[in-house]
Amino acid sequence: MKAATQTETWQWSSGNSVKPAQDLVAVEEPLEIQIDTRPISVTMRTPGHDEELAVGFLYSEGLLQNQDQIAAIKPYPRNESGNAINVLLKPEVKIDFARLTRHVFASSSCGLCGKATIEAVHQNFPPVNSNFQISNEILLKLPAILRKAQEAFELTGGLHAAAVFDLFGNLLVLREDIGRHNAVDKVLGFGLRNGTAPFSEHILLVSGRASFEIMQKALAARIPLVAAVSAPSSLAVEFARESQQTLVGFLRGDRMNVYSRPDRIKFS
What is the model's pTM? Predict the structure, then answer.
């Protein structure tokens, strides 16, 4: 599946006349995620790495803990468009579907009380306990690495990215998607499928803003430091502080804002 598709457009710029042209736009299609043919969620995503997206979503919802619980991942046979994926679990795996939070925590504007929301999440995912440190010099280099690796964004200008780095600034995985939360699920799914999750000594970097949902997903994967090129939301800041996560915003050029646990960053 392609992340971008070509479409007709009419281009205009100051001092020039309107002219027909071709443009690449990011693909957006629904994906239904199932467990043993039971529909769990429908998300609008950019096709590609759908298995990672499904696994990462189930991992961040607390329904899966490791790769060994999965028997197989297959497209749903009755969906000819390929927009349904079925995660088949081993017979001994019991799923508590009451743990699902997506229908409750759908967005940062869900209207719930922040404190009640955070306490509900912590019933499934306790605060992180990590004393690792990373230098500010390494942290400042990460956005340029992320931007250089954003191949689909280079074509369309319309995709978010999420990436996981180690403490030395090495890029472990980067995924792009039209939905920022989907990009995070894809990198988490990669980690679970490849045995590198939980990411207890890693950094999650996102290309846009840091929302409550991204912080929740990072907590599920035990990520102690989340950095964003743009701003955090108020609930993301509150969640980070309650969850003992380091939250960095406006990580650009030679600056950053640290909203919680600055002790994990070695400033020079």
Answer: 0.88
